[in-house]
Amino acid sequence: MDINNFKKILMNISEDDIEFDDPHFTKRCNENSLTKEKITYILLYENNKLSNIIEDRPRVYKLYFKLNERRQLKLIVDLFKYKKIMLRTVKILDRKLYKKVKIIKRRR
Question: How many Å apart are CA 65 and CA 68, to the nearest integer?
Answer without folding.
Answer: 9
